[in-house]
Amino acid sequence: MISMRTIVAPTLVAASLALAAPALAQDDADSWLPTLMTETPQEGFDLAVSMARKAVKTTQPDVDALHKLRPAYAHDPGSLIDVSGVVAEYFATIAEANDYWRE
Known about the structure:
About 70% of the residues lie in helices and about 0% in strands. The chain has helices at about 5-25, 40-60, 65-75, 75-95.
């Protein structure tokens, strides 16, 4: 049996990327994300978390709705694991862009 999480999580990620596409076409001066380059892995992880948060705000710009829905997922281990997976994917992309911080 396919769980709702199996369907919803990839759909949300795809939707967030699709909705963010116009932002990717902006000039660097107007971009909230001008580069994936970071000095350290910690900065890379922080950027990955910021990207995940931005994806949520992009897909649900209504702050009141976000706050209203938060109790439904804040204590759901599956939802928290899904978020960790999204951050991990973003971090992997950032790490690759930074050549894994090799010197």
